[in-house]
Amino acid sequence: MLTIKRKLILGLCSLALLACQSTTAPDWYSAPPTNDPQYLTAVGQGLNLTQAKQSALSQINAQLWTQINSSFVSRDIVQSRNQSEHASSLIDNHVNSKTANITLTGIDYPQVAKNDIGYYVQAKVSRDTVVRQLRSEIEQSNRHAQAVLQQRQHQDALLWWLANRAQSEQAQAVAVRQAMLRALGQDDIPKAESIDQLASALAQVQSGIVIRVSASRKDQKSAELLAEQFSKQSLKTTFSGTPNTTHVLKLTSQLRQSTVGQAYISTQFTTLKLQGRNGNILASHEIISSGNSLTNYTFSKEGAERNFADTVSAQGLWTSLGIQ
């Protein structure tokens, strides 16, 4: 009987505690959003304060993209009515808003609340602050593109392209910021001509690279494998010298064979040397591969060749060539 009473008391205490818990969101969180001409505001909720702030910031980004996407409709109509302007198609019309969130600075959190299930915050940022940040980032990207273009004169074409090929994504990042400025009612949008020039230069350099893969007949399989890897990078290769050749990849190998018990062991030492147009060595690397067979050396050699292919695939083309 005492046990039943004890359980009853514990149950009543639990109900009392649940009744005392606060799960109601603050009034300002539930209030409808206002269209403030000076500030972008949003609210967020999370299990902790960091999650709540991130949620609010995501909502501010979403506000900008809602305005951008709605502005595309009228811009598309103008574009379709005048075919002569098609050459200057708007890159921001194809921006993926799901992956284009901007890390905004100058965020203030005037409202913060906590109850028994989480945190609530209100985030606020001045529209002028956002405009200044977007303009600054566009200008910085343009200056960086100018510096990269100047480096082109002093670097090998392939190495320059490798070091800066990711810069082509900057055109999209700049387009995102330009679109956001339009969404914020800005008419004087900063241009980034160097960004466009860099993207064009990268494409031009890539299309002009022709790599001759030089190898003896016994290394033909390895040479073909490397040619396939270059092709995946959208780079042209050839197995014979042509006037358009810009680089030479020399592949040489040594094969060592031995038996261990009943196993035939083949170990292949492959040296890769990448040379520029003038014969200067840009990179070199040695790959050691091996294979074994219980039948003969022919099968173990084929195993070493497959191991070479697996090594190149695992390391990646550029690491395999000695380019870090």
Taking all Cα atoms into account, the compactness measure Rg is 31 Å
How many helical stretches?
A: 10
Structural class: alpha/beta
Mass-distribution shape: elongated
Distance from N terminus to C terminus (CA atoms, Å) equals 77 Å
How would a textbook summarize the main sheet? 5 strands, mixed
Residue share in β-strands: 15-25%
> What spatial order of strands do you see in the largest sheet?
5-4-6-7-8
Kindly state the mean pLDDT as a whole number?
84
Q: Give the number of DSSP strands.
A: 8
User: Secondary-structure element order, as H and E?
Assistant: HHEHEEHHHHEHEEEEHH
Please estimate the helix content: 40-55%
Task: Identify low-pLDDT runs.
Answer: 15-19, 71-99
Report on this model:
With 324 residues, the chain is α/β, with parallel strands linked by helices. Helix content is 48%, strand content 23%. The protein contains ten helices and eight strands. The strands form two sheets. A five-stranded mixed beta sheet has the order 5-4-6-7-8. A hairpin with a 2-residue loop joins strand 6 (247-260) and strand 7 (263-275). Helix 3 packs across helix 6 and helix 8 runs parallel beside helix 9 (297-315). The chain is elongated. The model is unreliable at 15-19 and 71-99 (pLDDT under 50).
